[in-house]
Amino acid sequence: MKLLGLPGNNHQTGPWMETIVQSVSAASGQISDRRTQHYAFWQEQAGPIDAEHETRLASDYKADVIIAKSMGSLLTLAAIAAHQLTPARCVFIGVPAGNGHPALSVLQRWDEFGISALFIQQTDDITGTSAQLMQLLGSNTHYELAEIAGHDHVYSDTSELISMISSWLGC
Q1: Are the beta carbons of 67 and 6 closer than 8 angstroms?
Q2: How far does CA 167 lie from the centroid of its chain?
Q3: Which of 109, 88, 99, 101 is nearest to 168 (CA)?
Q4: The predicted structure's pLDDT at residue 135
Q5: What is the pLDDT averaged over residues 125-139?
Q6: Which of 32, 126, 137, 158 sits between 20 and 30 A of 146, alpha carbons compared?
Q7: Which domains does the chain have, with CATH numbers?
């Protein structure tokens, strides 16, 4: 099984995501290959992200499991809607549920894609609360939502995240 990590917009989420991907991979006897994507615009120090380019790289990897944070979640959702990514399972951390991004509309019809998902969202995340995320997910059933205390969109307790993700994946 292949595991792909798609970090957030801030370059500091790259090493953060790599820690999570490495640890989840180590806990699982099922992960044969893992990768954390490092966005081109981080090196160029020029935004915004080239979503088409990054989606193509993610798609070429053909991941079975995707762990995505914030902007990585939006990339993943948009690519799933366009049938460019077809993972069996996704973990979304800190989905910017309150920003009105078009990719968020995918959540309203999540069950149509047949992808199991774990959403980890801070109760009062500044980019979208867990309540806003639940509202977007509506009556869908192919997901679990783990609400954690917080509001800063940082998700710094990697040990807690690794434990939650590993448990959900059955590691």
Answers
A1: yes
A2: 16
A3: 88
A4: 97
A5: 97
A6: 32
A7: 2-169 (3.40.50.1820)
